[in-house]
Write the structure tokens for this entry.
Amino acid sequence: MNQLQTTDTQEKKLELEVKKFELEQRKAIAFVATDFFPSHLRSPNKDATIGTAIIVLDLAQRMNLGALEVAQSIYIVKGKPSFETKFLVARLNSSGLLKGRLNTILAPDGKSAYCEAIDAQTGQLLRGTKITMEMAKREGWIDKNGSKWQTMPELMIKYRAQSFL
């Protein structure tokens, strides 16, 4: 291949990338214009909201999921995307990686929980970290502003145990 052909190919690739990005921007603008785009992903800065929507669209495509499902399940913690535990558990339970489903065991007093699952390939029992209310207190999860730990401690301890498998 000569220099002229290489340059022509590179220019066509660049042009295609620009068109692809412009299409993603148009999709993001349309997405954020709907009432379905979650308020927790909106920013006072319209460009930041569109940027977030582009990232959501990209993640959805990479995960082979709908953009709305991803947008409604994702949240930002210290500038990093994270997913709701119930979303992750649903994905895990439907992945085929487990024999059966993820099992969450809550202590009778409701002050600790852990999860178990059986690896579908090896049959090995997988056991997650035991989460306790004392741990939640030491980590600052309970006293955090707006924390659901104060109003729904059993649900929150289950979610945290599920996220630690």
User: Anything to note?
Assistant: The beta strands are 74-77, 80-83, 98-106, 112-119, 125-127, 131-132. Residues 1-83 form one domain.
